Every structure is written in C-alpha cells, then in structure tokens.
DNA sequence: AGCTTGTGTCAACGGTGTTGACGTAACCTG
DNA sequence: CAGGTTACGTCAACACCGTTGACACAAGCT
C-alpha cells in the first residue's frame, strides 16, 4: 500500500519523534484523513499535520515527496475503503450503478480530497482493483473490449464528476451555503413568465435541483448500456454472456478475503 | 455583470495607479482571466494580478471582498460567453447534447475557475437563460415538468462534473502531465493476468481512458432520454404510475448537509 | 479655495510549502 | 559489546501567499 514514498525501500531505523510517536507512511495518511475529517478541508496543512502527529512538519517529507503525493496516497486508501464489502450481485447493471455510487460517496465524504485528487489517476492498487472489477462487469455483459473500457470510463468519471461538483457545496461554510440557497430561491422563485416561459412552467419542480443528480445520471447511463446490451444480444447469440458473468462473480468472492 | 463588488455603488473618483492605469472591476476580471489563460492556473495570485495590472496588489480589495469573490465574477462572465450564438436546431436530443458540451467546454477553458466555480449556482441572468432553454427542450420533447427538470439537472451536472474532473488534468503543468501519463502506462501496461484478468484482457484499449468521457456520457444520457420519450409517447396513459414511482425513488439522494 | 472622501500605496502580520544542514540514535559489523 | 554508518527527526530559513490597517493624496463637491 501507499507505495510512492520518497524512499521506496522498507524502513529499518525507526526513531521515535520527540513526543514518542513512531512515524510511518500509513500513520501519516491516517493523521491526514483525521485532520480533514475533523477540522474541515481547508484546515489541512503540513504544519498542522505535523502538530497532529507530534512531529516536526518536515518529517512528512521523509515519506512523501510533497503534499500532493500524500493526498494521492490518501485518495487511494479511500478508494479501497469505499469498495469494502462490494460483491457482484449477478445483475451487472445494478452492480455498475453501485460501483459508481460507492465512488461518488467516498469522494464526497472527503470534499477536499474529492475536489483535488479524484481528478488524478492514482494508479495505485486499490484503483486497479476497482477498474478491473468494473471492466469485468461490462465484459461479462457481452460488450467488446473497447466498448467495455469506454463505458466504464464514462460511468466512473460521471460519478466522480458529480462528486467533485457536490463536494464543492460541502466545502462551503454552512452559513454561506444557506445564503447561497436563499439567494437561489429568491432569484428563481419569482420568474417573469414572458421572459422565461419554461422556467415559469416548471417553477414548482425547481427544488428538485437542490438534490444531487448523481443517482439519476447513473440510472440513465445504466439504462442506456442495458438497452445497448440487449440490442447486441439480439443480434448475436447470448451464450458467452453467462460464462463471463460467472467468472466475474467468482473473482468478487476472492477479493473479499 | 460583476455585481458583487465590495462597494456596489458606481465609482466616481477614478485615480490612476502609479503606472497610469485606471482600474475598474471589469479590467481586473480581464486581467485575472488573461493571467490564468497565459500563465496557467496556479500562477494566479493576487500579487501577480497586481503586477499584471501595474498596481499594488491590495488595490484589488477595493473592488472585490476577496479572491473568491473575484473568481465568481469571472465565472459569471464565462457562462455568458459560452452560450453565445446557440440556437435550437429542431432536434432536441442534439440540442441538449450541444448545451451540455458548451457548458463543459467553457468550464474547461479555464480550469482553475471550473474547479471551484461550477459548484456555485450563480443565479444570474445568463444562467437562468440556459436553464430555461434546456428545460424548454425537454418539455418540447414531451416530458412532464418534474421529469424535465430532473433530466436537465442530470445532464448539466454531468457535463459540469466532467469539466471539473478534466480541468484537474489541465491544471497540471505539461511536464507533470506527461510524467503522469507515463506513470499511468507503466502501472497499467503490464499487469499480472492472474490478479487482474479483466484489465489484462482490455490492456490494449486502456489508452481510451486518457481522453475525456464527457461526449460518451452525454451520448448515453441523451440516448436514454430519447428512448424514454419514445416509450412515453407509445404508452401515454401509463405515465402517471411511473412518475409516482420516480418521485418516491428520487427522494433518497439529497445532498448531505 | 477648501473640505471630504474615495482610492492607490505601503508595510506588516500570520500564515503557507519546501529545503538544506545538522545531530543523534538505531542498526550492522566486528 | 564497541564503533561506524546513516536514516531520520529537528531546526532554521527561504520565498512565497492572502489580507488588513494606516496613510497620503488627488478627485470632486460646495
């Protein structure tokens, strides 16, 4: 885990800090996550991290090249956590939806990280595991390699994109969020029917926009993929489909351990 | 435009700076955009902005409360620019796709701005115009009010979400981007077939993931909406039941507060 | 002409990430 | 059990950052 330390070799000389803590890459990642969770996103600082660890801030640089490197390691850990306990149900469409939702939720749980690091391909083990699973679901559904990759990409990026979007709302201070919402209602609440006829017509439905659209977007994506799979299945014979699905299911069970 | 100045009143005493430039909110927004466009996102700094303007950095605070206020004003301008020249073609699906793509492109054109400003509802005229147009397209396609709002929301948020995602890549310096891509290929290029069977199988298609998935996602969304519209048209009487079910299902996904 | 005051400038504060030098303690060798 | 290497924690410093309060001055009004 957390492979990209500054010095990739295993550590032997584990000297405790002045406060007695024995540092490690994992411990630092833990502290970073706790800091972000408890203090809020903008409270994350190398100096505060050092204080939370009971160590000099610069000690972090013995383990990570820079803060971004550290945040990437944190992002990968979150990916792993979000997928804990996930196992294919047999319905590839529902599984893909679940996969996207899990990515969304975990990204959203840590707004700062979501807005900053879901944008990067971490390329780390947890991420690779998820990609393998997701692509496997689509291959099992009968899509060819290129289409499976493209559809997986569209689905996951959509989930993460919504997360990045919604994370921004969470990053706002509560007071400002309330003010924003009020301003929104003020502006959209009373619309001139002649100038904005469509907005006027749907004015009673506009509060629907306050909720995240991620589930709806995922539903639509999966629906489109399902339809496409059915069309493909009608054209060819669906014999291969069941075999591949079995392969995916077996792999998911193995991952849990 | 640019409404949220520190002092909303119109300015009268326009004293030139030491370098002879006469400041204004618009001029500052212009300079900020030029700076971001030319120097890159992370080059944006109040101090550098001051230098680019030929003024003391603190002069900016006579026009905007803080940097975020300034960037919001900039975001507002971009919304207007992105929709310039848009006109419905008659194919509502294609128009919706175009609407989403325009939102995506304009957000992406200024990565730094996209990363944080797509999260805010500006509630200003430009935005209202876009919402009215998009909802109108869906109403014209035969969707009821609630569905039109929800589908518009899903489409636009997906486009903006992808923009926020892809903007992160653009925010990286070119050298780092290349290094990232190389690292990505190294990690995903040679994966053990036994551990990652699906990734191994699609390994030749993985470069497809380097490109943005926004068009593919929009295509899938529009395809799903088209299919739904056809179904609704075919069985007009059964619409009410499905609608009620939708409303119940949609209530679970509120943004966390 | 004189007064008010808006506005540009200056200096400063308290932060930030990051680095290079340094000492010391932990491990390896003998 | 002694000595040497050196990894790693610490310290001080650098170059930035956003933001603010005091100040000077010129624009505009009376």
TrEMBL record, chains A, B:
Ranges annotated as DNA-binding: 45-64
Region (Disordered) residue spans: 232-257
- Domain of life per record: Bacteria
Note the Pfam families from the entry.
TetR_C_1, TetR_N
Start and end of every HTH tetR-type domain?
22-82
Tell me where the signal peptide lies: none
This chain's protein is named TetR family transcriptional regulator
Q: List the source organism.
A: Streptomyces kronopolitis
Classification lineage: Bacteria, Bacillati, Actinomycetota, Actinomycetes, Kitasatosporales
């Amino acid at each position: 885990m957390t492979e990209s330390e500054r010095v990739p070799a295993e550590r032997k000389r584990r000297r405790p800090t002045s406060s007695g803590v024995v540092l490690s890459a994992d411990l630092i990642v833990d502290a970073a996550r706790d800091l972000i969770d408890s203090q809020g996103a903008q409270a994350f600082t190398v100096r505060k991290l050092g204080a939370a660890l009971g160590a000099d801030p610069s000690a972090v640089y013995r383990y990570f090249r820079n803060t971004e490197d550290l945040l990437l390691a944190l992002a990968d850990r979150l990916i792993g956590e979000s997928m804990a306990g996930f196992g294919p149900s047999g319905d590839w469409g529902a599984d893909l939806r679940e996969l996207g939702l899990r990515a969304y939720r975990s990204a959203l749980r840590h707004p700062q990280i979501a807005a900053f690091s879901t944008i990067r391909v971490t390329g780390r083990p947890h991420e690779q595991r998820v990609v393998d699973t997701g692509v496997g679901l689509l291959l099992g559904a009968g899509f060819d390699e290129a289409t499976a990759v493209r559809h997986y990409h569209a689905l996951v990026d959509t989930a993460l994109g919504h997360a990045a979007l919604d994370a921004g709302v969470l990053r706002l201070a509560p007071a400002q969020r309330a003010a924003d919402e009020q301003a929104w209602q003020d502006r959209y609440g009373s619309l001139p029917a002649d100038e904005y006829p469509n907005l006027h017509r749907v004015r009673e439905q506009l509060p629907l926009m306050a909720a995240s659209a991620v589930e709806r977007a995922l539903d639509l994506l999966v629906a489109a993929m399902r339809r496409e799979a059915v069309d493909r299945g009608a054209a060819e014979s669906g014999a291969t489909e069941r075999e591949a699905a079995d392969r995916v299911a077996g792999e998911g069970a193995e991952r849990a351990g």
